[in-house]
Predict the structure.
Amino acid sequence: WRLRGVVMAKPALMTKADHQRVSDAVRDAESATAGEIVTIITDQSDRYLDVALWWSIGVAVVALAALAAFPYFYTGLVARMSGGWITEWTLAEALELALAVAVIKFVAMRLILSWMPLRIALTPGIVKAERVRRRAIRYFKVGAERRTSGRTGVLIYLSMAEHRAEIVADEAIHSKVEPEIWGEAMAKLVGGVREGRLADGMVAAVSDVGAVLAQHFPRAADDVNELPDRLIEL
């Protein structure tokens, strides 16, 4: 965010106390397992510019179809706006009208979709799910994958605008834990967010993930903390 050339920090999604609660939950969960838990929360996972583009194109095409279906409505409207000076249309003028209608509708829709909440609301759920999953995997590859000696890293990723969460596990965990096992942790995380208890949801999810990891990957006596426990807010 910028104001008169001054860089302003993006508003935090969670307070310092919330961050500490999540970090403490990660530390407690890892005390019984060799697994490493990384937590990331972000306001949104994609800008969905392509979705805005396709909606704008679609509206322009629908406008052209309406012009073809009801030509006299548009020509009459132009005639009234011109004070009755335009009554007969050449082919070139008709094409110019069609181009003008398409451009106006396209630009208007694109401007409307500059409001991000509407853009996300008009994005199909399957697209949002895919983008959130893709971003979670990208962050996991950068921040957790293969960064533990036993390949036991887990990422808990929450994307607020899309109302979606992902749990991504490293190779050793993925080979022993079915994806469905994370269902309860995901339900608690999403449920907490829906009820306005973001920190509570994240803490509950961390606790459940830690319990699963402790069952399959108990902590060894010489185990060391290989990944940061703090909540990462992007």
Q: What stands out?
A: The mean pLDDT is 85.
